[in-house]
Amino acid sequence: MKEGKVVQLGKPQEFLTNPANDFVRNFVGSSHHIGDDFLLKHAVHQLSDTPPEDAYTVNVATSLQEVLDALSNRDEVYVTSQNNVIGKVDRKIMVDYFATSLKKGSEKHV
Questions:
Q1: CA distance 82 to 12
Q2: Sign of CA dihedral 104, 98, 16, 4
Q3: Are residues 34 and 102 in contact, defined by beta-carbon separation less than 8 angstroms?
């Protein structure tokens, strides 16, 4: 909403990938910035214990979209590199990652 008027309706992903105008783009930020700069290795947290045998894993080179898809129906995802588990991400870790990324991005524009 801008000045009491609906500017765009849609799913959250649509606001990021196809904002209706500059107001929406500036309000939600640009997924282009986050997605293009995303490297899973920067979001991974070290493990404090051994992952369960049935743990869902993704490779460290996995795209942002694939990680978000995996976390949409799982509490956590374990990350591998060269067939070794190197850490994990969960929803909170990803939110923290985005918050930090957005803050760094906004500092560049100040």
A1: 34
A2: negative
A3: yes
Q: Locate tokens 């290795």: which residue?
A: 41
Burial class (CB in 10 A: 0-12, 13-18, 19+), 102: middle
pLDDT tens by residue, 60-100: 999 998 999 999 999 999 999 999 999 999 999 999 988 88
Entry pTM = 0.64
> Which residue carries 């992903």 as its tokens?
13
Look-up of token digits 């765009």: 8
- Alpha-carbon separation of residue 102 from 24, 32, 59, 83 (angstroms): 15, 12, 24, 31
**CA geometry: angle at 21 spanning 20 and 27, to 5°?**
95
SS3 state at 50: coil
Domains in the chain: ranges and CATH? 1-37 (no CATH), 39-108 (3.10.580.10)
